[in-house]
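Q: What would this chain look like folded?
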Amino acid sequence: MVSVEGAKEYYMCKAAHEAGGPRRCSGDARATVERSASEVSALERVEAALRVESDESLFRTNHVAGWAHASSVENQVVRVAHLWRALSGLRRLRHAERRVYESGRCA
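A: My prediction, written as structure tokens:
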């Protein structure tokens, strides 16, 4: 068990020579973490692009035109929906990654 003062304790994989071993890290768990990390990275890039695009669009419609056309509002709704889906996927991946580490399946 790995423990840092004041931090949550995590059970780590045990080596063959340790008591209770061998309980090795699963290659599947490691691959899942790597895959989710790359998916999180991709979703973070999408999120950043959507935020920039959304901010620029809001600036143009609110400050330049003074009001938003119906088509602009519809586009904003679509962008927000895409952003919401991306953020929801990001949260699910981060939660799954945290569960893998906390379960002790990967050191």
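Confidence is low (pLDDT under 50) at residues 63-68.
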